[in-house]
């Protein structure tokens, strides 16, 4: 969905342009990219996941706000999805929901004929230890133990290593005891001309949070001109 939306923006989207420094000032903000190029704007909207955000140097943002943003953490996890012509597990009177004992942590039906699975942080190292050519087969083996041999016959499958992707460095928000209080009441709030949005700035991540915070932030930007 994000890639499809990005195509409508054309050259206004810069890909693989890592941000190294952000200077926030009323009336004029500056963003410095890796390589030295600087961009200027009236406001800055950050949709960076909390992992990559920690590598950006900020000026003009309060210590309290930075402390709140930097205290957030994401689960080092991966997602696996297998797409089938039909939800074959239903013929076995199964609903596709499970908690697993293999590398997969859980499965759930993402859509008609699509079965998704999560590789949780405590099993992520096992996934990384798998040779890349055998990963799909071994993950499908976990699915087959739950739902039968038809699990080996998806028309496509997809694995995203969120936890070690340099642009994400994690999956959904991971709250440890004490984190909610440490992140505090600034979580998900705005201080023009610096705005934050994205799934991390919602309750617990996920696409719903990205959409909600994106819409809320857009309204705030428009309201402040």
Task: Write up this protein.
The chain is α+β, with helices and mostly antiparallel strands. It has two domains: 2-74 and 173-223, FAD/NAD(P)-binding domain (3-Layer(bba) Sandwich); 78-164, Polyamine Oxidase, Chain A, domain 2, CATH 3.90.660. It contains seven helices and eleven strands. The strands form three sheets. Strands 7-8-9-6-10 form a five-stranded antiparallel sheet. A four-stranded mixed sheet has the order 3-2-1-5, with no helix packed on it. A hairpin with a 5-residue loop joins strand 1 and strand 2. The longest helix has 18 residues, at 206-223.
How is this structure best summarized?
The chain is α+β, with helices and mostly antiparallel strands and 225 residues long. It has helices at residues 2-7, 50-53, 63-71, 121-129, 135-147, 179-183, 206-223; strands spanning 19-23, 29-33, 38-41, 44-46, 57-59, 78-83, 98-99, 106-111, 114-119, 156-160, 194-196.
Number of domains: 2
Query: What share of the residues does DSSP label as strand, in percent?
Result: 15-25%
Q: What oligomeric arrangement do these chains adopt?
A: single chain
Structural class: alpha+beta
Radius of gyration: 20 Å
Could you say what the CATH topology of the largest domain is called? FAD/NAD(P)-binding domain
Mean pLDDT: 93
**How many strands, which pairing sense, and closed or not: the largest β-sheet?**
5 strands, antiparallel
């Amino acid at each position: 969905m994000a890639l499809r939306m990005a195509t409508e923006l054309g050259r206004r989207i810069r890909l693989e342009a890592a941000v190294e420094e952000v200077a926030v000032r009323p009336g004029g903000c500056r963003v410095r990219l890796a390589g030295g190029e600087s961009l200027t704007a009236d406001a800055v909207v950050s949709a960076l996941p909390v992992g990559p955000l920690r590598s950006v140097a900020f000026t003009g943002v309060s210590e309290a706000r930075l402390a709140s943003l930097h205290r957030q953490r994401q689960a080092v996890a991966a997602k696996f999805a297998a797409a089938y012509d039909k939800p074959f597990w239903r013929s076995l009177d199964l609903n596709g929901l499970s908690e697993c004992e293999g590398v997969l942590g859980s499965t759930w039906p993402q859509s008609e004929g699509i079965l998704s699975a999560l590789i949780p942080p405590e099993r992520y190292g096992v996934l990384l230890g798998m040779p890349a050519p055998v990963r799909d087969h071994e993950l499908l083996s976990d699915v087959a133990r739950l739902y039968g041999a038809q699990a080996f016959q998806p028309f496509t499958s997809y694995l995203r290593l969120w936890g070690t992707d340099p642009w994400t460095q994690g999956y959904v928000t991971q709250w440890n005891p004490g984190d909610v209080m440490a992140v505090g009441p600034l979580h998900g709030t705005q201080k023009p001309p610096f705005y934050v949005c994205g799934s991390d700035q919602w309750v617990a991540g996920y696409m719903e949070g990205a959409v909600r915070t994106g819409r809320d932030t857009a309204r705030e930007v428009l309201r402040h001109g």
